[in-house]
């Protein structure tokens, strides 16, 4: 049974069209149930684009791109975090698994093949938290032969998981005070990237509204891993300043294959060199020294 796909859209009509068209060109597309969650406009500035997005997705039921298309339009603006949490809750209960996309992710023709095969292969491997369709430009050791690698950090750019993992998340982060008081825990959490603990701090302080950092924190608490492909099946086209939470960057560009190739899944061990290369994608030591020591730097500048 193929996993249903949940797509979250907002106010980027051009990006949404590219995301839907790429998914429609996937092998398995015509056998896949698709659920599109459209958030309502936050203000007058985005109202026009939200209407354009909804006009486009309304037309999808007239075409047989997918097995079925279900459109859920919010009457109020939920924001990305609440939209994804509630939407995934709804879809994952259908058959215990879900594949998730946002409106700025273009997929390769074998994305659905890769994601469904991975969901089937790792379902009963309880150390696996989620499947990522995206990968960074990682430097792999010469003797590393696996077509996938493992990381301490989940990915929000085209991902999949199972109901038992999703249902275990504590979205309130109720043990945050205890976590913050233990320096060893903070250091351990940052194995997935130097930005992890600072993002969680910002979430608790309500400076950001991120479902993903809470998702990653629960992964850390469960001591579980995410599967990444060596060859990316997802490209983010939204780092062009058009998104609510995205700036402009080419740092995370990925080249997608135009062919369909089945991945040979296995059970590789964590690789220290890959983990280091992965971690370095999230800033330099100097950048995060500045983040963690703002008050100290301010005092030094006064002197």
Automatic annotation (TrEMBL):
This is Glycosyltransferase. InterPro entries: Nucleotide-diphossugar_trans (IPR029044).
């Amino acid at each position: 049974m193929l996993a249903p796909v949940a797509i979250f859209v907002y106010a980027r009509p051009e990006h949404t069209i590219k995301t839907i068209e790429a998914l429609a060109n996937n092998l398995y597309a015509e056998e896949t149930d698709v659920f599109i969650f459209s958030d309502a406009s936050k203000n007058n500035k985005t109202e026009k684009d939200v209407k354009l997005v909804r006009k486009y997705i309304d037309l999808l039921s007239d075409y047989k791109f997918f097995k079925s298309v279900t459109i859920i339009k919010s009457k109020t603006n939920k924001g990305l975090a609440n939209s994804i949490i509630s939407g995934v809750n709804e879809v994952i209960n259908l058959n215990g698994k879900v594949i998730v996309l946002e409106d700025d992710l273009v997929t390769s023709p074998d994305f659905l093949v890769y994601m469904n095969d991975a969901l089937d292969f790792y379902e009963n491997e309880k150390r696996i938290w989620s499947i990522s369709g995206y990968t960074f430009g990682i430097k792999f050791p010469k003797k590393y032969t696996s077509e996938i690698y493992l990381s301490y950090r989940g990915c929000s750019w085209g991902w999949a998981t199972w109901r038992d993992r999703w249902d275990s998340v504590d979205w309130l982060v109720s043990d945050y005070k205890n976590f913050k008081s233990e320096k060893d825990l903070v250091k351990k959490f940052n194995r997935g990237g130097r930005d992890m603990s600072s993002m969680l701090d910002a979430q608790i302080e309500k400076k950001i509204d991120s479902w993903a950092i809470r998702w990653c924190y629960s992964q850390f608490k469960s001591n579980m891993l995410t599967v990444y492909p060596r060859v990316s099946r997802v490209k983010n086209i939204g780092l062009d300043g058009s998104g609510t939470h995205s700036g402009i960057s080419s740092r995370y560009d990925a080249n997608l294959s135009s062919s369909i190739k089945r991945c040979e899944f296995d059970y590789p061990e964590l690789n220290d060199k890959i983990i280091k290369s992965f971690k370095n994608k999230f800033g330099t030591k100097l950048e995060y020294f500045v983040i963690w020591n703002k008050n100290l730097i301010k005092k030094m500048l006064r002197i």
